[in-house]
Amino acid sequence: MKTRQLYGEDMVYILDAKSVGNLGRYFNHSCSPNIFVQNVFYDTHDLRFPWVAFFAFKLIKAGTELTWNYNYEVGSVPGKKLPCYCGSTECNGRLL
Ligand SMILES: C[S@@+](CC[C@H](N)C(=O)[O-])C[C@H]1O[C@@H](n2cnc3c(N)ncnc32)[C@H](O)[C@@H]1O
């Protein structure tokens, strides 16, 4: 994994999946996530080529699982039901 330091102390981990998958594929969903996803423009301002970036909501203790809210719409895939196992007290119960 390539890393790059930006803005003093803040470390940005580059998870470029352009040519090969990476650990981002293991981020599970949580109804109480500790990271969120956002498109950012890093090497170009061409709207067709955003980088998909994950940011922490707050400081995360080392060893804590990183989870984000997939924001799937329950019922959006006919015939598909996916229970949520995030374990949060605020769990919605289903991913799909
Ligand atoms: C991007 S993968 C996440 C990594 C996956 N858990 C693995 O071990 O490869 C997304 C899949 O993980 C599972 N998953 C992720 N978060 C989940 C959750 N909160 N409850 C149930 N399944 C979850 C679902 O099967 C989902 O389609």
TrEMBL record:
Subcellular location(s) of the protein: Nucleus
SUPFAM superfamilies for this protein: SET domain
GO terms (BP aspect): methylation
UniProt-listed InterPro entries: Post-SET_dom, SET_dom, SET_dom_sf, SETDB_methyltransferase
Keyword Methyltransferase: yes
Record-annotated membrane-spanning stretches: none
Keywords recorded for this protein, A-Z: Methyltransferase, Nucleus, S-adenosyl-L-methionine, Transferase
Identification of the protein by name: Post-SET domain-containing protein
Organism this protein belongs to: Helobdella robusta (Californian leech)
